[in-house]
Amino acid sequence: MLDLMIREHLTQLSPSLRDWMQTVSTELLITLGVDPAMEVSLLLTDDEEIQELNRDFRGLNEPTDVLSFALQESEDADLTPELLGDIAISVETAARMVSSGEHRARVCEDLGEAVEWGLGEELSFLAIHGLLHLQGYDHAEAAEEAEMKAAERSAWFALRARVGNAPA
Fold this sequence. Notes:
Number of strands: 4
Largest sheet: 4 strands, mixed
CATH topology: Collagenase (Catalytic Domain)
CATH superfamily: Metalloproteases ("zincins"), catalytic domain
Shape: globular
Order of helices and strands: EHEHEEHHHH
CATH class: Alpha Beta
Oligomer: single chain
Strand order of the largest sheet: 1-2-4-3
Helix content: 40-55%
Number of helices: 6
CATH architecture: 3-Layer(aba) Sandwich
Radius of gyration: 15 Å
Distance between the termini: 27 Å
């Protein structure tokens, strides 16, 4: 089960995009083959809150796009085997990243065609990235990064086939 929490003050998210993200959160675990008994929380927040999380948990006093907290990697994982972890995404950072095109290019690498890419697509990409981290993927080394990028690309297109494009 994926529990989606969206901070109310996020003006970048229209009601239709909020609804679409709810659909994404329902389909995300299925798309990535996560056991439906596992619990994941996904928080859509702002730069201020994600900066606090980044500072408190990683020692980096700056906003970031996505943070993952893999609970199955903790020393108490055996006490809560049903808790996979938590993901936090800054909607403000995601909105800025849409214009950079970095993630769009990563997903469309070797595809030979363009895809629509707005805030919804960026948020769904970051949710996939975060969930892959919870499943043990990493990108610290070149081989790991290549494997994670391939998994991101595959999952993004599979999710898109399930939920369609985000509302404009």
